[in-house]
Fold this protein.
Amino acid sequence: MRNRWMASMFAMLAGLAFSSMALAQTAGSSGAKSAKAASRAPDLTGVWANITESSATFNPKEDPSFQSWAEAKWMANKNTDPGQPSITNGRVDLDPTVASCFPTGMPRLMTEVFPFEILQVRDRVLILFEKDYAVSHIWTDGRKLPEDPDPSYMGYSVGKWDGDTLVVDTVGLKDITWMDRRGHPHSDALHVVGRFRRINHDRLQIDWTFDDPKAFTKPWSGQTIYRYHPDWTLEEFISCEDRLLHGGESLEQKAVKGHGQ
Amino acid sequence: MKNRFMAVLLGAAVLLVLTRPIFAHHGRSNYDMTGTVTVKGIVTEFQWVNPHALILVDITGEDGKVEKWVGETNSPNTLSRQGWSRNTVKVGDQVTLVGRRVKGGGYYINFSKIVFADGKELNPAVQN
């Protein structure tokens, strides 16, 4: 009796195993494989807003270990006004997004207060940012990082699923941007690794490692947290609109220079 | 009974921490952070623009001299998530703005509180 039961269990399990193998073989092309992978991947989709304790930077406890040229830039960018909160934005007169309307770029967009939306499609994870209308394309089709990419504000990103974590590698970042709102500088050799994990339905946690052989003496790490907002949609944000409307200078800039009176 | 009470207390504490508004969105090196100023006048324009919505306010002194102030606050994106629209402030409204004044004496403040003539008060802040 027991042997017959064991035999039929074995047969059933074998049948299941063979049939799933057959299904896998008919999938064929890598496109279908990545489609299956995408449909099995954890769901990070939705609108997320930054609730990190000191959201202006990735690591409030320590700055990157800078090489001397980068340390000098950091000292200049840093906001040292007396009476300021200890963690705040860098100097607005040096901030490329404020002083000169440059795009925010990556990884700084991950430290902004404006929300972003994650979408998952067949061969990419897309991050749509409210700020600057920027989009990050994270290629999940198995491609490798490019050897020598032309630098851009958003960089070149590839992603790979590691269990419930999306591991995102980004290279090819233009060095004109600040790494974060605090004003930490970087070079075009910066390599960003972000481990994205939805730790519960309403929380996205990203663990970061930053490696910049031209600007740092060793890697820097940090963590950011985001809250899920099922009822939010992204708005439009043209960051220098006020300047465009007021002859190239915002009303604040005019007031600081004494033109507003 | 005690466990449930503690759980409710903990839950309330967690809620308080999580819903606190985020400050320090705006770089503050242009502003006098040592105190707040109050500006009360008549709205001449409400600019629903990025990165800061702007309220232009005229203050007419007893001598008839008009001071033209600008009050900036958060971006329309942030404000609309708190129920603001381009019609929340209207030309002709009498408003009181409380905030930090720009350094150097310009008629410009970054306000964190606005009070309307009917007493309604709004406190725009980033609420993620």
User: Anything to note?
Assistant: The first helix of chain A runs from residue 2 to 27. Chain A touches chain B through 44 residues (CB under 8 Å). Chain A has one domain: 46-232.
